[in-house]
Structures are given as C-alpha cells and as structure tokens.
Design brief:
Distance between the termini: 22 Å
Number of domains: 2
CATH architecture of the largest domain: 3-Layer(aba) Sandwich
Shape: elongated
Order of helices and strands: HEHHHHEHEEEHEHEHEEH
Structural class: alpha/beta
CATH class of the largest domain: Alpha Beta
CATH topology of the largest domain: Rossmann fold
Strand order of the largest sheet: 3-2-1-7-8-9
Helix content: 25-40%
CATH superfamily of the largest domain: TPP-binding domain
Oligomer: single chain
Largest sheet: 6 strands, parallel
C-alpha cells in the first residue's frame, strides 16, 4: 500500500468515526467541472482588472463593464454541472454526517449537487443569485442574465429602482458577518474538517480550517498544491479530488 492509499484509508476511517463533519472547499473542487480557478494563467484575474465595490456603486461605466464580464461568464456558469467532489458532500449530508459546508466558491455547484441552503456557508456569495443593493430583493440569476446583452446599461431593480448586482462579494466589499459567524461556529464544533481544493491562503476563509484544528478536530486536506496548514493536517492527500472521493466512496460502501 502506498502512502497516498494509506491516507485515503485513514480518511475513510475518520469519516466513519465522525458524526460532525464540516466541509471546506476552494476553487480546486470546481476546476473538474470546467470552472476557472481565476488565479491560473489565462484566468479572469489575468485578463481583467477587477471592478471594486465602490466603483460599482459610484460609476455607471464601471457597472456596465462589470455586467459585461458577468454576461461573458454566464454561459459557462449556467451550464456547469457538479462533479464527484460536490456529490460526495451531498452523500455525507444524506448519511447524516455533515454539519455544514464552508465554501469560497461562487459557482453554486454545491447547491446544484443537492446541498440545502441551511447547510451551505457561502463566504464569497454566489453567482446563482442577483440581489438589489437597496431593497435586498433576491432573484435567480437566470431570470436576468438570459435577457442581457453586452454593452447594455447596468440593470436596475424593477421594484425599487435600486442597483442590481450578482450576490457575490466584490473587491472592497465587506463579507457577510452572519455567514462568518456560521463558519466560525461550525469550525469550533466539528470532529473532522474535510478541505478539498483549497490552497488555504485566502483569508479570512482560510482561518476556519486552522480554527478547527486548534479546537481538536481532525483535518484532512486534499489538494494538488502545498498549503500553510500541511503540517497541521491529520491526513494530507496530493491527488485529484475526483479520484480521491471515488476511492472514499468505495471504501465507505456508498
């Protein structure tokens, strides 16, 4: 048995022994669904200068540019489907073992895989929703995005005339304190945290696995790259997520 095979078996044992599991996911879980990790060469961060939240609020031209980019991204987000990694957390939830899942991703694939909203902590929001920044009305993104064309003026709320924006956290925008509080509570009380596809460098999100470890939880990290928490990990697996969860599913008899 190789070291990596042993690590996967150890992870299966930890899952079997735990009733309060928390998931933590980053961009790496969604690359297997064709979603860009944004920081990679050729990703959106290399191609576009980000529009900051204050610019979005104050500048109509910046809002138009922001929406133009969202329209370009929309078909890939609309058509992306959950992969084995997303489905694995849904199986954990169905087994009664998942307390919640903290995700840095805004692609909505965990929800598409069947995880209920009350189990999801969306640190950076979701592109699957549009929010009015004035009246806080939320609508499914498809209702608006399907009818928009590049270059059009930024859309306004049909109810109050306020600015509409995808329900994500933009550069310079404050994180949702309620979501942060939920993440903190989950991290402090879990028995096992499964970190899939995150380099664990983006804060404050990356602080939650560290908190779980400090509070005595086992920490399993599955990622192809090194992370600052490698030395704190109970189990460290350097293999593609789809392969790992496939073997875990077999070992768990699911």
């Amino acid at each position: 048995m190789t070291e990596q095979e042993g690590a996967i078996r150890r992870t299966a044992e930890l899952i079997n022994a735990s009733s309060r599991i928390v998931g933590f996911t980053g961009a790496g879980i969604s690359t297997e669904s064709g979603i860009s990790d944004y920081r990679s060469k050729g990703g959106l961060w290399n191609r576009f200068t980000p529009v900051y939240y204050d610019e979005f609020i104050e500048d109509e031209e910046k809002r138009r540019l922001y929406w133009e980019r969202k329209i370009e991204m929309w078909p890939s987000l609309r058509d992306a489907q959950p992969n084995a990694g997303h489905r694995f957390f849904s199986r954990l939830n169905a087994a009664g073992k998942l307390s919640g899942l903290i995700t840095q991703n805004i692609d909505g694939l965990h929800a598409k895989a069947g995880l209920p909203r009350e189990k999801l902590v969306r640190i950076h929001g979701t592109n699957a929703e549009i929010i009015c920044l004035s009246c806080r009305r939320i609508l499914p993104a498809g209702e608006l995005m399907e009818g928009m064309k590049p270059g059009e003026p930024a859309p306004l709320c049909s109810e109050c005339g306020g600015l509409l924006k995808p329900n994500t956290i933009s550069f310079g925008q404050n994180l949702d304190t309620k979501e942060l509080e939920r993440a903190e509570k989950l991290s402090a009380h879990c028995e096992l945290m499964l970190c899939l596809g995150s380099t664990l460098v983006v804060h404050p999100a990356a602080g939650f696995p560290a908190m779980a470890a400090r509070c005595g939880a086992a920490l399993a990290i599955v990622t192809l790259s090194e992370t600052p928490l490698d030395s704190a990990a109970t189990v460290l697996i350097r293999r593609p997520i789809g392969e790992v969860v496939g073997e875990l599913t077999e070992l768990l008899g699911w």
